[in-house]
Design brief:
Shape: globular
Structural class: alpha+beta
Number of strands: 6
Number of helices: 5
Radius of gyration: 17 Å
Length: about 180
């Protein structure tokens, strides 16, 4: 239900809040600025009791072409690490500034941020290998996660995984592994 030529995001925001009101709560708004001013807005929703099927259904509202990919990513995470802990998943809905200078009336990207901070130490040790397998499975080319993590250890000898994120629009946009460095 997106009206791409309407210069208001009110309807999309209402739909997101309505769709997620049983499953989560809005917890933040991110403002993205560039040299020309505001470039976009991200609405964050924290899920009360996250579940891969629910996450995929919420993605499907705006990005039906990629909701199955999101669902599979979430299910792969749950298979490896167990069910999501309460309030360990945050969803992000990105709105961009269109060529006419208005915010798009529909999200241009959906993100599911899976909270790795809720994993125990043994699970956190397995996370880089799992994430690397996801990069391969989803066809992300030119990555060398092991080498990148080894290189990072010269500055930060250890780290704690915080989030494993998938971002989609009508195709996979990105996978991100957020780490909290420890000196």
């Amino acid at each position: 239900m997106c009206i791409r030529d309407r210069p208001s995001i009110e309807l999309a925001i209402r739909k997101i809040i309505s769709d997620t009101e049983v499953e989560g709560i809005p917890v933040g708004i991110g403002l993205n600025f560039g040299h020309e001013g505001l470039k976009g807005i991200r609405l964050y929703i924290c899920m009360f009791q996250p579940d891969g099927d629910i996450i995929a259904n919420l993605c499907d509202s705006f990005f039906p072409k990629t909701s199955a990919v999101v669902k599979n990513y979430c299910h792969q995470f749950e298979q490896e690490f167990g069910k999501f802990k309460d309030q360990s998943v945050t969803l992000g809905y990105d709105f961009a500034i269109s060529s006419n200078g208005y915010l798009t009336s529909c999200p241009v990207r959906f993100k599911a941020e899976l909270g790795c901070f809720a994993l125990n130490q043994e699970q956190q040790k397995k996370l880089p290998d799992w994430f690397d397998k996801q990069l391969v499975r989803l066809g992300i080319k030119n990555h060398n996660l092991d080498s990148d993590l080894t290189s990072m250890k010269s500055s930060f000898p250890s780290y704690i995984p915080q989030y494993s994120t998938i971002g989609v629009s009508d195709e996979i946009d990105h996978l991100t592994l957020y780490l909290e460095p420890r000196a």
